[in-house]
Design goal:
The structure holds two protein chains of two kinds. Chain A is of the alpha+beta class. Chain A is built from two helices and nine strands, in the order ααβββββββββ. In chain B, the strands form two sheets. Chain B has a five-stranded mixed sheet, with no helix packed on it. A three-stranded antiparallel sheet of chain B has the order 1-3-6, with no helix packed on it. The chains are: A alpha+beta, B mainly beta. The interface between A and B is medium-sized, with 36 and 34 residues.
Chain lengths: ~150, ~110
């Protein structure tokens, strides 16, 4: 009997912990975005321009322990002529409730196309960064992250 | 009003690339969370943050709920001449905040 109770307690305790993982954005968490939603959002940003891989680098840990504040850096290392300078960076998370994470815009007095911030990730997923340049070219990079403890906000 | 911590060098040489770091004190409530009684907690996020130097926009960010609480940003501007660096932000309840710093360029 004692053994039974103990086992039940353990089960209840672990179910609670699992609940946190399953409902990362709180009880009744909304439907997540899909890769198709993200593709549409990216299309909104780049328009008809072909999206090439490269030039922009997305720096994000591939294994995240706690997803409430994940450090991320977006940068372009190449020295670009003024007519091809970076106008904006756009960051997307495929499986967050809202795939948009942030849009960053750079003026002509910007020092370098580089920005760091901290983001929330609802679960393990692909994070995508897009750069738009003044010559009309658009570039992307992506990182697949594994999230151990999702952004459990309660 | 949202408070901010801003780190930026006070002086620079013309042509130097200067890093600006800012942390806003803001909950960035996602709108996807429930309170203890099961009611949804309304969304409350900073919507945008702008940095201007010598009157020109240097950096602007549009934020979504996936930006962590107490938003942090680091970005760069090119020092040209002595002038003000103005940071301004707005949240989705219309609350505005701002700070002005002086960058001395030698």
């Amino acid at each position: 009997m004692t053994t039974e109770t103990t086992r039940r307690r353990v089960l209840v305790a672990s179910a609670g912990a699992a609940g946190c993982l399953i409902l990362p954005w709180g009880v009744g968490a909304p439907a997540r975005a899909t890769p198709a939603d993200v593709a549409a959002k990216i299309r909104d940003v780049v328009g008809d321009a072909p999206l090439k891989r490269g030039r922009i680098k997305l720096d994000l840990p591939i294994l995240v322990e706690s997803a409430n504040a994940v450090g991320v850096t977006l940068l372009v290392e190449d020295r670009l002529p003024p007519e091809a300078r970076v106008l904006s960076f756009h960051l997307f998370a495929e499986q967050n409730p809202l795939p948009n994470v942030a849009h960053f815009h750079f003026g002509p007095r910007s020092g370098r196309p580089r920005v760091s911030t901290r983001i929330r990730l609802a679960t393990s997923q692909t994070v995508i960064a897009v750069a738009k340049c003044a010559d009309g070219s658009c570039w992307s990079d992506s990182v697949e992250t594994l999230v151990a403890l999702a952004a459990c906000l309660d | 009003m949202t408070r901010a911590l801003i780190a930026m060098p006070k002086t620079a040489k013309a042509g130097d690339i200067v890093e600006v770091k800012i942390i806003l004190s803001h909950p960035m409530e996602t709108g996807y969370r429930m309170d203890e009684s099961g009611k949804p907690v309304p969304r409350h996020i900073v919507k945008d943050l702008v940095c201007r130097y010598l009157g020109d926009e240097v950096f602007r960010v549009e934020l979504f709920p996936a930006i962590s609480a107490n938003p942090y940003f680091s970005f760069f501007l090119t020092a040209e001449r002595t002038g003000s660096v103005v940071l301004a932000w707005t949240d989705d309840r219309g609350e505005r905040g701002g700070e002005t710093l002086n960058l001395k360029v030698e």
